[in-house]
Amino acid sequence: MLWACCYCIAEFLLHPVMVFLYFTLLQYPFNAEPPRSALISSYVTPVDLFYKRNHGPIPVVDDIERYSVLIRGLIDNPRDLFMRDIKMLPKYNVTATLQCAGNRRTAMSKVKTVKGVGWDVSAIGNGVWGGAKLADVLELVGISKLTSTTKSGGKHVEFVSIDKCKEENGGPYKASIPLSQATNPEADVLVAYEMNGEPLNRDHGYPLRVVVPGVIGARSVKWLDCINIIAEESQGFFMQKDYKMFPPSVNWDNINWSTRRPQMDFPVQSAICSLEDVTAIKPGKVKVSGYAASGGGRGIDRVDVSVDGGKTWVEASRYQKPGVQYISDDMNSDKWAWVLFDVTVDAPQSTEIVVKAVDSAANVQPENVQEIWNLRGILNTSWHRVQVRVGHSNM
Ligand SMILES: *[C@@H]1O[C@H](CO)[C@@H](O)[C@H](O)[C@H]1NC(C)=O
Ligand SMILES: *[C@@H]1O[C@H](CO)[C@@H](O)[C@H](O)[C@H]1NC(C)=O
Ligand SMILES: *[C@@H]1O[C@H](CO)[C@@H](O)[C@H](O)[C@H]1NC(C)=O
Predict the structure, then answer these.
(1) How is domain 269-390 classified at the CATH fold level?
(2) How many angstroms is it from 48 CA to the middle of ligand 2?
(3) Nearest bound ligand to CA 254?
C-alpha cells in the first residue's frame, strides 16, 4: 500500500454555516476565533471555542478502518500504521496551548499593510491533547529515541496532511520538525486522537493530528496522511514561503525567502481579554484579565499591567489549574500551556490599560509594533493596549 500515501480518502466539504459565537474571518477556508471574554472563561479551552485556522477545505475521513498513516523516506522499513497500531501505544495527555502565528494581526496591519488573515487576540487556545508520543510511533519503524540522524541521513520529520490548499498548487499542506525533537519523549510531540477527553472532531484534525507543543500552530499538522523522514526541512510553502520572521526593511519587492529559517517556537505573548479595544466603564475599579504564553516550554514569570499607558506597572496574579499555585517551570505546572492572569486596578478617569509578560528566560514583549512589524504580519507580541472610557451616566 506504499503508493497509497497521498491517495485521497477525503471528500471536500465546505464547513457548514458559521458557528454563531464566532467572528468569521474568511468563510473559505474556514477561519474563526472566539470573542475575548469567552476565551479566558476556562483554563482548558472548550472544543467549540478553540480557534480554527485552515488553509483549505476541511477533509472528511469516513472509512476509519482503512485510514492509515504511511511512514516512509530515509528509513529501512516504511510502514503503514492504522488507528489500532497508534492506539496500542501508551496514551499520554499533554496540556498544550496552540497559537496561530498570525494572532493579533489585525492591529499590525494598521501600521502598514501585511498579508494574511486578520485576527484579534483569540487565535490561541489551550487543549488537553490525548494520543501517542511521536517518539513511540517512530520506534515502530525502527527509529530509536533521541535520534537526530537516521542511518540513511534523515534529519527532519515531515507531516503531510490530507487537506489540499492553493498555496501548494492543490497539493497537501505540510510542515516538518527536526528529528531530534520528534524522537525526544520530553518534547511531548503527540500523534493525537483526542482533544479534551473526546475524540478529535473534524475541525481539529480527525482522525489524527500532530501536536507540537511550544511551537507555532502551523507545525501541528491536522488530518495526518503520511510522515516522511527527510534530509532537509520540508520544502512546503508554509515552511519556506510563509511563517518566517523578516525585519521591517524587507518588503514584497526585495524579499529573499531563503535567508530566514522557518519560525518554530512562539515568542512570549500576552493579551487582555476582559476588555475590548475601547470599553466604557464607570469610574472606580476595573478587572483586567487575560492570558500569557511563551514557546519552547518556557513558563511565565511575570505579567505586568499598567493603567497609565506603560509608565508604571502592577503585577497581576497568574494561575493555571484551580487550587494549584502557579510557579513557572515547576514540575506541577503545565509547561506547554498558557497562564491566565487577573488583577483589579483603579481607573478614576479615561486611560490606556497595557499588559506585558516576562517568560522564564527573561524574554519580554517589545513595547512597539514598529520594532517587530514584518510583511507577513506574524508574531505580533507588542504590549497589548486597550482604552477605557470613564463615564458617569448609565452605560
Ligand atoms: C498588535 O496587536 C495589538 C492589538 O492586538 C495592538 O495594540 C498592537 O499595536 C499590535 N502590535 C503590532 C506589533 O502589530
Ligand atoms: C486524559 O484527559 C481526559 C480529559 O481531560 C481524561 O478523561 C482522561 O482520563 C485522561 N487520561 C489519562 C491517561 O490521563
Ligand atoms: C537568496 O539568499 C540565498 C541565501 O543567502 C542566496 O544564496 C541567494 O543567492 C539569494 N538569492 C537572491 C536572488 O538574491
Answers:
(1) Immunoglobulin-like (2.60.40)
(2) 19
(3) 3
CATH fold of 2-259, please? Sulfite Oxidase; Chain A, domain 2 (3.90.420)
Distances (CA, A) of 245 to 97, 101, 166: 21, 10, 22
Q: Which ligand is nearest to the CA of 190?
A: 2
Q: Give residue limits of the domains in the chain.
A: 2-259, 269-390
For residue 23, the model assigns a pLDDT of: 37
Find out whether the beta carbon of 385 lies less than 6 Å from any atom of ligand 1. Answer: yes
**Block means of pLDDT (10 residues each) for the chain, length 395 residues?**
27 28 46 87 94 82 94 96 98 95 63 60 92 98 97 97 86 95 98 98 95 95 97 89 75 82 90 95 94 97 96 97 90 96 95 97 88 69 93 61
The number of angstroms, rounded, from the C-alpha of 247 to the middle of its chain's C-alpha atoms is 22
Q: Is the peptide bond before 172 cis (omega within 30 degrees of 0)?
A: no
- Could you identify the atom of ligand 2 that is nearest to the CA of residue 198? 4
The alpha carbons of the chain give a radius of gyration, in whole angstroms, of 21
Question: Does the C-beta of 127 come closer than 6 Å to ligand 2?
Answer: no
